[in-house]
Amino acid sequence: MTETVSEVLSEVRGQVGLITLNRPRALNALSLGMVRDLMAVLLAWKDDDKVLAVAIRGSNKEGPFGAFCAGGDIRFLHQAGSVGNPEIEDFFTEEYALNHLIHSYPKPYIAFMDGIVMGGGMGISQGAALRIVTERTKMAMPETAIGLFPDVGGGYFLSRCPGRTGEWLALTGETIGAGDAIALNLADGFLAADQQARVWEALGAQSFADSAAIKVFVASQLIAASAHLASARAEIDQYFALDSVPAIVAALEAADSDWARATAALLRKRSPLMLHVVLEQVRRARAMDLADDLRMERDLVRHCFYLRPGQSETLEGIRALAVDKDHTPRWNPERIEDVSPQLVQSFFASPWPAHAHPLAALR
């Protein structure tokens, strides 16, 4: 008989609850089962006086650390979305509720964001009291490449990045490293990858006076890291402050810099429809609290799969990237200039009355 190994390992050591994501072959992409396991353990520890703080890490094929979480399980989303499996609805509702719990968690929640931290991996780390990055960190919200939008609270945390860097990250899906993550308020400090195990072990072995002492101890281990984006910041703010996607792309294409031309070419590969939706999402989210942003994103995700029967940008994007792997998604509309404002606005109409919203309980 083959023994099934849990995809979420949790234990209390000393005064700290320790969580290891244990699906290394999938780069710890979140399944519905993993979301449920994380929720259950966090709720149990929330009211456990013996647990003063929580720490979470990923794993790779060699062992702990190395990859944090590459996002949601997009192959599951494609399969479930293609056949109308209701678990797709459960996945997003429960994942967003988990994201909200982490942001509002009453004890320090410490995320070791080593290796790949994308999509759903950002959702389970951006709400942390301490967000630790390493020289191996590759951080992104790459959803526009699969005809989706930066969800899991992406509207909330990207809209709060300095200047217009949130719009830039959301629309392009570009990957950043540790220094830029700290500079853009998406991480709190740097720890060399080979120092992670030492700090992790100390969390479980040392005695702490209270929760605050745990946070102070970990923060004292972190160092600064240099950002690389500084030179592009002025250009990012200039172009991504423009009032529409066609205006942003036209200005980039007319510019005389390699960075601008490369950025325009990248945007031309993304789903034209979802670029418009994402710009609207980030700008609306600037004025929202997290609960309202997650409710908006829950509305958006329903529309991504069901607004246009047989024409889901998300199913087509995942097909091209992860299923058939032909890397030639057939977007509809095909061009950024052909997206109608009415179609974009229809994504923001909630399918539910407020009292019946799947995330009505979030505060």
UniProtKB/TrEMBL annotation:
Sorted UniProt keywords: Hydrolase
Protein's UniProt name: Enoyl-CoA hydratase/carnithine racemase
Organism ancestry: Bacteria, Pseudomonadati, Pseudomonadota, Betaproteobacteria, Burkholderiales
Annotated ranges, domain Enoyl-CoA hydratase/isomerase: 16-348
Cross-referenced Pfam families: ECH_2
Molecular function GO terms recorded: 3-hydroxyisobutyryl-CoA hydrolase activity
GO BP terms in the entry: L-valine catabolic process
Organism in which the protein naturally occurs: Simplicispira metamorpha
CDD domains: crotonase-like
Keyword Transcription set for record: no
